[in-house]
Amino acid sequence: MHIEGWLESVPAVSVYLLVGIVIGLESLGIPLPGEIVLVSATLLAASQDHINPYILGASAIAGAVIGDSIGYLIGRKGGQPLLAWLGRKFPKHFSAEHVATAERSFQKWGMWAVFVGRFIALLRIFAGPLAGVLRMPYWKFLIANVLGGIVWAGGTTAVIYSLGKVAEDWLKRFSWLGLVLALLFGLGSMLVMKWRSKKSKAAAVTAADSETAEPEPVPAGD
């Protein structure tokens, strides 16, 4: 089957469900590539008229808000033992260093950590469970969670869809090759963003460690 025919045969509801479930699980605290899935699905919507970008964005928002809320409830119920268990299950993402970095962010920024955390891969999987563990008032968490989900999921969908439409119109003469190039461009952009985010977090951790390091004792004068 021609690739365009295959793409047209993909049920729109399956795309909506995939995006909502993956983003929901990631927001709940399970390390999954929610951002990449959202970008790929949005680029697909830009080239396939049967996929509605508004429904797609709404599915992403719903997954983000519901997943974060469930993560909050699990964190509030499980407490610190939950973080220790996650550290054993997902040592790459829930290591003691990452947990400490996220806790410092929450203690310093509060609600803003939940909102801004939606845009940072590491904090995105921490936001819900950690807010519950730290006993953040639910109304504060809910406001930041809903606003963050709308801005991140809705904004990402709108921007990538617009870029995808422009790219699709420009590359339509190349048929499926244009879609492949658009997908590769989107994935490449997300990988660069994640690399920069990782580099920024590493710099922040180094700075925090240097601030907390004890000063060397000054030798007494003669």
TrEMBL record:
Record has Flavoprotein as a keyword: no
Transmembrane segments: 15-46, 53-74, 109-134, 141-162, 174-193
Subcellular locations according to the entry: Cell membrane
UniProt similarity note: Belongs to the DedA family.
PANTHER family noted in UniProt: ALKALINE PHOSPHATASE LIKE PROTEIN, UNDECAPRENYL PHOSPHATE TRANSPORTER A
Subcellular location, principal: membrane
All copies of domain VTT, residue ranges: 32-161
Keyword terms: Cell membrane, Membrane, Transmembrane, Transmembrane helix
Organism: Streptomyces rugosispiralis
Topology with respect to the bilayer: Multi-pass membrane protein
Keyword Nucleus: no
Taxonomic placement: Bacteria, Bacillati, Actinomycetota, Actinomycetes, Kitasatosporales
Name of the featured protein: DedA family protein
